[in-house]
């Protein structure tokens, strides 16, 4: 399976780029039960994306206090040093993006922030996976909209297509508003509602929206 950078830099994108995947009741992998996944890249070499409704208890402030963003990391055995934090950064959402590479953080964000390591996902969304964007968010000069995702979801060539054929997923075009919405508890039902589907209507026999 290609790495995340390989997926995002390839031009032979597939039909599921920029789509939501909604886990069906027949989903056998409990890690994806009732999940909404945003597909960042899809090609003949596989697919990758991020779960959008698995919030984490870790706050952005707690995260950056454990990183040496300003060269002021506390010595071992002593409390982390307090660092300046913009008001918007205090509420910056952190979510579990998927089971792969869960120790790595990615920021999916609006296209008003760009760095040398920023990779466009589509015409409106970008992905940055370096500490530069964390500094920018902390200082209040990061993207207008964004979420931090720990880990990602990935599929080998043909795997996602086979799972959809087996009715594990329902797919539909993604909405930026739902991507960045922090009402995680209702996100699954609202994506279905956007397709005109009630959860009670779902069965393992459903297909594409």
TrEMBL record:
SUPFAM superfamilies named in the record: VC0467-like
Pfam families: DUF179 (PF02622)
One GO location term (cellular component): cytosol
Gene3D superfamilies: VC0467-like
Classification via InterPro entries: AlgH-like (IPR003774)
Family: Belongs to the UPF0301 (AlgH) family.
Cross-referenced HAMAP family: UPF0301
Protein name per the record: UPF0301 protein AWJ14_06490
Organism per entry: Hoeflea olei
Organism lineage string: Bacteria, Pseudomonadati, Pseudomonadota, Alphaproteobacteria, Hyphomicrobiales
